[in-house]
Amino acid sequence: MPKYLDFEVSLLGVEPKIWRRFLLKGTATFENLHRAIQDACGWENYHLYEFRESKGRNVIARVPYEDPVEEERAPDAGKVRLTLHFTRKGAKCLYVYDFGDDWHHVVELKQVTDLPERFTRRLVDGARAFPPEDCGGVWGYARCLAAIGVADAGDFDAEDLETTREWLGEWDPEEFDLASVRKRFDRLVRRSPT
Question: Same domain for 119 and 159?
Answer without folding.
Answer: no
